[in-house]
């Protein structure tokens, strides 16, 4: 269940964002992508989320090039990947309905049918996964509250619960805590570690290097047009092989 970008080149129009980027994520690991603003962290996540095809290179899921298969098959892969954006987009309904939303949309119709049938015969109340996910982000008590009454930090926690609820293989997080206070940030970070414990592979783009240091198993440094270094978190922070990594981490590289 490894998701991998292999020698990917991408850009917009005539603008090159990156050239020859490779990165993988495996079950039960947290990979952080760090790099200055505008370097292409979101672009890389969008490619890993299979939203866009890279201009060159390949994105592989379980060693299968995802842009070489049928659209139907690619959709199946898409359903196994969850994504949380910088800003939560919730709709006007209860917290529980919002957390369940991913379950309804992302499940294949066969899964959905099976799930509906089990809830009909009383094997599940149909919302167990969503409630469990809300518990993980500390919002179980608020399940019946209207989502519009939540603070920004709580809304982001619901967005995270939504992604967690349908048990993706891979979770992609684009600066999920950049607008949050320390308490909400800590809740999300704990939930990320819980996702890892459940065997989910997590990729998080963050400009908060301390966050990368706190939660990541591996760190990829995106600078210029390339990932200049990727490795074990401690090594990247304490003993980087690339001098630019050290400068970036110490704030000496100004972009
Ligand atoms: N849809 C698009 N069309 C044209 N250019 C784009 C598009 N999306 C991103 N870009 C450009 O590609 C480059 C990389 O953007 P991206 O959002 O991936 O960077 P980032 O590292 O995530 O930045 P930030 O940390 O500020 O969110 C930027 O120069 C941006 O302006």
Fold and architecture overview:
- The strands form two sheets. The protein has a six-stranded mixed sheet with strand order 6-7-8-3-9-10, sandwiched between helices. A four-stranded antiparallel sheet has the order 2-1-4-5, with helices on one face.
- A hairpin with a 2-residue loop joins strand 1 and strand 2.
- The model has no long low-confidence stretch (mean pLDDT about 90).
- About 40% of the residues lie in helices and about 25% in strands.
- The protein folds into two domains: about 1-80 and about 170-255, Rossmann fold, CATH 3.40.50; about 90-165, no CATH class.
- By secondary structure, the chain is of the alpha/beta class.
- Adenosine-5'-triphosphate binds near residues 12, 17, 38, 41 and 42.
Q: What are the defining features of this structure?
A:
six-stranded mixed beta sheet, four-stranded antiparallel beta sheet, alpha/beta, 39% helix, single chain, Rossmann fold, 255 residues, binds adenosine-5'-triphosphate, globular, 10 helices, 10 strands
User: Helices and strands: which structural class?
Assistant: alpha/beta
Are there runs of 5+ residues with pLDDT below 50, and where? Answer: none
CATH class of the largest domain: Alpha Beta
Mean pLDDT: 91
Give a count of the beta strands, DSSP E runs of length 2 or more. 10
Instruction: Please report which band the strand proportion falls in: under 5%, 5-15%, 15-25%, 25-35%, 35-45% or over 45%.
Output: 15-25%
Helix/strand order: EEEHEEHEHHHHEHEHEEHH
Q: Which ions and ligands are bound to the chains?
A: adenosine-5'-triphosphate
Number of domains: 2
CATH superfamily of the largest domain: P-loop containing nucleotide triphosphate hydrolases
Largest sheet: 6 strands, mixed
The number of helical elements comes to 10
Strand order of the largest sheet: 6-7-8-3-9-10
User: Percent of residues in helical segments?
Assistant: 25-40%
C-alpha end-to-end distance: 36 Å
Shape: globular
Q: Output the radius of gyration.
A: 19 Å
């Amino acid at each position: 269940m490894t998701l991998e970008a292999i020698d990917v080149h991408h850009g917009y129009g005539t603008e090159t964002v990156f050239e020859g980027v490779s990165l993988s994520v495996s079950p039960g690991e947290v990979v952080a992508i760090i790099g200055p603003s505008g370097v292409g962290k979101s672009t890389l996540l969008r490619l890993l989320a299979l939203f866009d095809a890279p201009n060159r290179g390949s994105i592989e899921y379980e060693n299968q090039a995802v842009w070489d298969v049928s659209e139907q098959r690619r959709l199946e892969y898409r359903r196994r990947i969850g994504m949380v954006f910088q800003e939560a987009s919730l709709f006007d309904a209860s917290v529980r309905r919002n957390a369940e939303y991913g379950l309804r949309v992302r499940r294949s119709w066969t899964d959905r049918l099976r799930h509906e049938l089990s809830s009909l015969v009383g094997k599940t109340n149909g919302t167990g996964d969503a409630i469990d996910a809300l518990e993980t982000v500390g919002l179980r008590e608020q399940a019946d509250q209207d989502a519009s009454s939540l603070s920004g930090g709580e809304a982001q926690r619901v967005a995270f619960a939504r992604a967690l609820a349908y048990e993706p293989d891979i979770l992609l997080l684009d600066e999920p805590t950049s607008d949050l206070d320390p308490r909400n940030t800590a809740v999300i970070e704990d939930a990320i570690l819980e996702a890892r414990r459940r065997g989910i592979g997590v990729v998080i783009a963050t400009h908060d290097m301390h966050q990368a240091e706190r939660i990541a198993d591996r760190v990829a440094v995106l600078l210029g047009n390339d990932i200049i270094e990727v490795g074990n978190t401690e090594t990247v922070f304490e003993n980087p092989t690339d001098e630019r990594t050290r400068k970036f981490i110490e704030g000496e590289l100004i972009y």
